[in-house]
Structure formats: C-alpha cells, structure tokens
Known about the structure:
By secondary structure, this protein is an alpha/beta fold.
Amino acid sequence: xxxxxxxxxxxxxxxxxxxxxxxxxxxxxxxxxxxxxxxxxxxxxxxxxxxxxxxxxxxxxxxxxxxxxxxxxxxxxxxxxxxxxxxxxxxxxxxxxxxxxxxxxxxxxxxxxxxxxxxxxxxxxxxxxxxxxxxxxxxxxxxxxxxxxxxxxxxxxxxxxxxxxxxxxxxxxxxxxxxxxxxxx
Length: 185
C-alpha cells in the first residue's frame, strides 16, 4: 500500500499543570515538527495514466493552512488552566490563538487531537485518504508517534469538539467559536 508522508514545522508554547513535571508547569515553548502518514481509504492499483494516490498539493493543502495559520505560535492550555479565565477577562481577542485540550496539552494529547482534526479535514474532502500515523517531534530527542483511532483515546464530551470538526478552530471558546472558518478545498 502506498503512503503519502509530509512534515510541517510550527512554534508553540504550553504549560502542563497536572503535576507530572514542575518544570513544565511554567509556560515554555518548543519548535515542533508534525509528520503525518496518509493512506488511501480504498487502495487500488495504479491506473497507467495518473499513477498517484492523490496529488500532494490537494492532500496537504487544508492541513498546512490549519497548521500555519492557527497552530503555529498558538498557546496550548488545559481546559482546566486558570490562564483561560485570565485571557477571557483581560485579552479576549487572543482566545482564538489558544489551543485548548482536555487536560494537559501533552504531546500525546496533541497527537490524538491533531490526527482527529486531520481525519475530519480528509473526510470533508471526500474521504479518499485517512491518516494512519502521526508523529510529533517535541524536541530533537523526544517524539510521540500514534497509530489507531484517536477518538478512542480522547475523553468523550458533549457535542463535536474542535478536533471533531472540519473547521479551522483550535478551541471551543467564545468568541473563538464565532470566528470559525469552514474548510474549502
């Protein structure tokens, strides 16, 4: 089976407040690389003409737009982080630049949320491809790889969360939700 594999770099900041690492409770940043492996939802032999699973440009366009315009330079926070209240009160215009995860925004959590989001983008674009694997390099020596169903690994919630929708959102906060940009290919 053929795989389409591509990588994107982004800068981010986060903090982990659940006590796993006191050092990581302070806001800090990383320059991360996310690599995805896409496979055909219905594999078939090459046709002798076009000879590709999907044009790379089409396969990665929405994903790269989301990473570049919404994930890059975003602040990643837990849905329980008191900084969310601070931003809501003092800098609500910045809420759209805060990625909110259920619990700490660990690399494992980010991998599942991002893979689920990419699969929604792909489904919205006709479902010809699906993400089989995602790898996030947090540092040059630390990375997380995930294969499987990301929704099975994420906590259940009410209604479709940002990672379950094919829009450009990175959280479910207001007024960020009102600023959703729907995907167009």
